[in-house]
Amino acid sequence: MKEIIERLSELDTPAVSDALDSMGLTGVLSGVAARVPGAKTCGLAYTVSYRAVGEGPKFRNAANYLDDVPAGSVVVVDNGGDTSCTNWGSLLTVVAQARGVRGTVLHGSARDITEVRAAGYPLFSTGVTMVSGKNRVELGETGATVDVHGVLVRPGDVILADDSGALVIPAEHAAEVADRAERVDATERRIAAAVAAGSRLDQAREKFGYATPWRADA
Asked: pLDDT digit string (tens) for 62-83?
């Protein structure tokens, strides 16, 4: 899997999305947007879910799980899509970078965006707010399948995220997706080069197999 992740890291989400489409797979994590322009991440998903806190006066820390996240992982946090309070900020970013975590994808909100951007940490979320998660949400569980707008993310699936958004690649399909996405990327580069050299776009697309760019004979 390490070699596959390295290959996918060299690709962008549009090429990988096209590869997933060609296999009838839905991988886009809808509504998730880049919060650090130019940052990109690719790695195995470490899943985390939150739940609303119950009644009671006791202080509820949002969560302490990052020390257990393996280096090279991408943290995928599910707050049920609730963006009214945060699940990530500058302190967790410092810990994540120290632990070798590759990035974070939130089905929820982040804060401290200025500090996160200054750190260059790959952060992607469905929302942004300054409201703390303390005493509002708490850790539900880690290592379980999470649902991001109807798309399931399992521990060990591959996450790829860049300025165009975030997507999940089922682990069992990762090698084939990488193969197809590399062919998509190569096809688009050939078309771009031909157009830059003076070719008509329609002719270049026809010549280089734009309709099925993932095919080995494209």
From this structure: 678 999 999 999 999 999 999 9
Helix (H, G, I), strand (E, B) or coil at 170: coil
Tokens of 127: 């929302």
Q: Which residues pair with 161 in a beta bridge?
A: 41, 166
Angstrom distance (rounded) from CA 204 to CA 201: 5
Q: Which residues contact 3 (CB under 8 A, 6 or more apart)?
A: none
Binding-site members are: 89-92, 111-112
CB atoms within 10 A of CB 110: 26
Binding-site annotation, residues for Mg(2+): 112
Cα angle vertex 69, ends 64, 70, to 5°? Answer: 160
104 neighbors 84 (Cβ within 8 angstroms): no
N-terminal to C-terminal alpha carbon distance within the chain: 26
With CA atoms as reference, report the closest residue to 128 among 83, 90, 76, 78.
83
Convert the pLDDT of each residue in 172-218 to its tens digit. 999 999 999 999 999 999 999 999 999 999 998 998 888 888 887 65
11-35 burial code (b ≥16 CB/10 A, e <16): bbbbbbbbbbebeebebbbeebbbb
Binding-site residue set for substrate: 89-92, 111
Give CA separation, 71 vs 17, 43, 61, 81, 166, in Å: 26, 10, 24, 26, 20
Q: Are 108 and 77 in contact (CB under 8 A)?
A: yes
Supply 77's token pair.
């946090």
In 3-state terms, what secondary structure has residue 173?
A: helix
